[in-house]
Queue: 2 jobs
Job 1
Amino acid sequence: MFNTKSLRLIFFGIGLIAVVALTAMNIYSMHELRKSTIEVAQEDKKNQIEEFTTQVRFRFFQPFRSIRKLDIEHLQQYYDDYNDFPDAFKDIMIDASLDSIFYDIYYSPHGEDHCLNDSYPMYKFNTQNRQFEIEENISTQVCDGLGLARSRMKVLIDEYRWNNKASFDTHRSMTLSMINLAEREIVGHLIFTINQDYLVNDYLAKNLIEKFGPSDETGIVVWLRDFMQEEILASSDPNIEHNRDFIDIRQRFPDLLENWSLHAKIIDSPTIAATNASLFRNLVVLVSAVLALFGALLFMFLTSKRERELAQRQAGFLANVTHELKTPLAAMQAAGENLSDGRVTDKDRIKSYGNHIYTETIRLRKMIEKLLDIARVDAGHNTIQLTPHKLQDLVQEYYDSHEAYVQSRGFRFELEAEPGLPDVLVDPDHFETIISNLVDNAIKYSFDDKEIKLSVQKTKTGVSLTVTDSGIGIPKKSHQQIFEKFYRLEDSMTAKTKGHGLGLSIVKKLVELNQGSIDLKSSPGKGTTFIVEFPVYQLEAETEKEMERHYEYVNKELQTSDYVK
Ligand code: ATP
Ligand code: MG
């Protein structure tokens, strides 16, 4: 159902998808792990902040916890009888007035609101004589707190379970309403004015630093913010500035300090930093591994594709070569038979038969030579005789002996050589093979514009031979492949010519054996230029021994060269 090629592609695709899926899964789970670590750390910080606000609340109520145990009915009775409070109650007031968080304590009996009618008295606690004494100068701070507490209690009085209820007027005062639960009525209000300076600077600021600073150890900064005034009152780390847009946690105080809230920013704590670092490390390792895997997969895919192509071309070559060896032989056999029979007597026909045999022999010889060349180059047993030569002389020699032939094929054949060029070290036989293959190609792959130009020039590091034609050209994507064995372009023009894709692979190998390099410039439809360059021979001034050593080296290189089939 599937041929090998599509199977290979399918497996390659499955391999790629598997690698991509595995990588994506890994990255996703690493990311999730990091997220949950950070979330746990954040949750933990959130709890700490919540706990902090509860502690602050507790701090305000600390002096009054024992009021709950008092019998408020009894207290009311006592007050009605003696216009004073029992000692147990006064002890509590003493405790509260010793707490720096409060300034003063005021008492306003229920129903006699001084703030509404100043003919009613308002009392202030005097710690010295443990008495509530009438106070004339009542500040708005006290009246505001009292007013708030009264209106709150109106709503709560019928359902409230405890015998006292604290109400806060922001951070200015705390009012404790005492409740006679049996009668469901308010006995009186105790107003505590709050020492804001102490509260912020001595209590909250210090506790914030103690609990949450310094940020590089705890991984968090917490600010106390007055959001009505838009002002930061205290911070756990003064080095870090508050920025409303980058706050991770916002927390209000429960039932108290209504204008204030805590803002917190999570900074990379050691845990989060470690998680980030490990995520980064894992990603780097994973990406490198995946790239290596991709590379290996692609390499295997490409090499197997190449090998397959090479095998196909090799098989094609064998079939062709057999056919092409047989064709000239058959032609020669027929011509020879006719001649030997004596059947042909006409002089002209004898000559034409002779010519035929001659050209076919040359074709056969050329083909056998090429086969031998490739066999030698493949086996790495090519003998090399590197000797100093003037490249322009070798090219001139070739030109002189082939000019007539090339022109007979309808070509304009030119040679241009710079005079006085330095010597290069080449094997002249190899050079002959190189140049004749290049000219051969130029002839074969030119159809309309028939011109070939040879030129010899000095380059930066050596001397070069260029062979330029105005033929069909070679597309850029095939510039590498044409040097591979058995490779021929698959276009209709190339199809009109005969060949096995061996010439350029032999040329390249020989150029390299002679320490040279080969390159080409070509644009399809316009023509091609092959440039072969050999390094300048620089041993002239040295002794013969050194020269010998050089030859030895080159010959040794040759023996060990591993030309891949
Ligand atoms: P062989 O040289 O073995 O008889 P060939 O000429 O096809 O056969 P190469 O000389 O190796 O093989 O060339 C390989 C391919 O490169 C050719 O088939 C042709 O498509 C392309 N080619 C080589 N030289 C030229 C050129 N001068 N102009 C255009 N195409 C060329
Ligand atoms: Mg060729």
Job 2
Amino acid sequence: MRIEEELKLDFSDVLIRPKRSTLTSRSEVDVDREYTFLHSRHAYRGVPVVAANMDTVGTFEMANALGAHQLAVALHKYYKEDELIRFFKSLAVDAVVFYSMGITRADYDKFRRVKAAAGTHVRYVCVDVANGYTKTFVDFLRKLRQAYPDITLMAGNVVTGEMTEQLILDGADIVKVGIGPGSVCTTRKMAGVGYPQLSAIIECADAAHGLGGLICSDGGCTSPGDIAKAFGGGADFVMLGGMLAGHDECSDDIIERDGKLMRRFYGMSSRTAMEKYAGGVANYRAAEGKEVLIAPRGTVNITVQEILGGLRSACTYVGARKLKELSKRTTFIRVARQLNEVFGKS
Ligand code: 5GP
């Protein structure tokens, strides 16, 4: 056993220090980013915020709504093949929609058939496992990259620099970073495993950028300010689950509780999800996610405006004309208190 003494940080442990700036208005800030991906060599331009590939949030409807604002979506993996083919074929060329998959034989075969039918409409792929540290995962990634040199590949999840490097060397363009920070995740409670998200971002971004790769911070953002901190820490993309949950564009999972209509939101490793898709929780494992009920939040457009407004504001406070400059201009200060909650938490 060994103990690492260095303190690791979460979004709630820091604030961004304001800096002198010549910007006069938030409207001057450009929140688009441009990347050329390391392996696929695709050129990307857009707002690098991605809806998570959870079945509640990563929907076709969400893809259409976010696409209108240049944001991206990782579709959940439970759509049927014909639905996926039809959807991808209908996509505009500049929409950024990730096809998501796990690493089973069935996942790979399904992907091959969808890709064969939808061709270059499927350009972004997210290979997603809870634990990105296994040899099976790395082998799968390598095989996928060899078979499809042209796809832009996001893969994870990991939280440390050395594994980020490994995934990039084995074919990932974007490494998905985050173990345990999610709003409906219980991995830290059930397994005691995890890494504070801001430090994970800082360390993994450093490792990825050194090789010409990118990272996507996945999980733990509870407000536009957290998204700004993720970008400030060096994230190239930020993935959101809970912040996009409860909207009209989410899967239609509405129930009545105490006379009110509520939307269900649950982790993809929760009992709810496993009962829905895997016939229950297998007897050798425990659920590592939970279910919550959310009061309906209307259309996601309002939330998108809040997110973009918050990001522009963060950029203005540090004098960044472009989102690209935010991390260079970010100094985090460690704090013991974040918010004044005298009138509650909202
Ligand atoms: P959020 O934005 O809600 O804080 O985090 C979303 C992320 O939580 C997802 O993209 C995914 O990585 C993670 N996640 C989703 N469901 C589960 C789950 O059941 N268990 C765990 N450990 N993580 C989950």
